[in-house]
Each structure stands twice: as structure tokens, then as C-alpha cells.
Amino acid sequence: MWLLRGQLFTCKALQSAQANASEELNVSFNKAYEGTLKPYHNFVVKGVFTVGTLLPFSVAQAFIVYQVAMKACPYRADFFTKVKADPAGGPPSSDEHLNERLSQWLTGLDGIVTRVQTFYKAGGHDKGF
Questions:
Q1: Residue 89 lies in a domain
Q2: What span, in angstroms and rounded, lies between the C-alpha atoms of 99 and 21?
Q3: CA 36, CA 11: separation in Å to the nearest integer?
Q4: What residues have CB less than 8 Å from 52, skipping those under 6 apart?
Q5: pLDDT (tens digit, 9 = 90+) per residue, 63-92?
Q6: Exposed (0-12), middle (13-18) or buried (19+): which is 118, by Cβ within 10 Å?
Q7: CATH number, residue 52
Q8: Domains in the chain: how many in total?
């Protein structure tokens, strides 16, 4: 269940980043968190989900940790420069090629997530086991 939710989170964040070319990744991932994972987290985890700890934080401390985690996203330009790079040392991919391939990948991921969500709902497992 949590793997599926994580895949949905990643898919929605990257779809947002692709659709909004001027939006920094931390904004895209924050929007995706709000719409995908946040409904399943209690008030402590909402602040520290990316840190991976459940220490007894106050709500204010949890909020600060969450904000720091979101700021840890790479800058958009740095991220896409790395993604476009050729690991073999050749010339980087063009923006057009990257967008085309990212669209294909996100369409595939979205389809997989949708099919698995449908399967979970049909079996009554969409709220967890």
C-alpha cells in the first residue's frame, strides 16, 4: 500500500514539475504531498515523513523539519541537468527529448498506479490491510 502511495506521490510531483516549467521542485513535491500522502499521516508524521523518524516532536518542530525536508529537494535546473546528462559522457539530451521521454514514463507510471489502485479498491484493501 505504501509503495503504491509513494509511486503516486512521485508521479504527481513530476507531472506538476513538467506542467509548470517555472516551478521549483520543492513546490511540486509539496503540492504532491498535500494531495497524496498527507491524508494518511498523523500530525507528527506530516512534519517528518521524509526524515524517517518518529521522535516525539512538537507540532511546531515537526512543521520545521517538514519544511527543511522540502527545501532539500534539488533545484529544478540542477535536477534536470543531471537527468539530461549522458552517463557515457556524450552530449546531453535536448529539453524536447527529455519532455517527450518524461511524458511517456509518467503516462506509464500513472497507468500502473491507477490499475493497482482499482485492484485494491475492488478487493476492499484501499484503506490498508
A1: no
A2: 11
A3: 10
A4: none
A5: 565 566 666 789 999 999 999 999 999 999
A6: exposed
A7: 1.10.3520.10
A8: 1
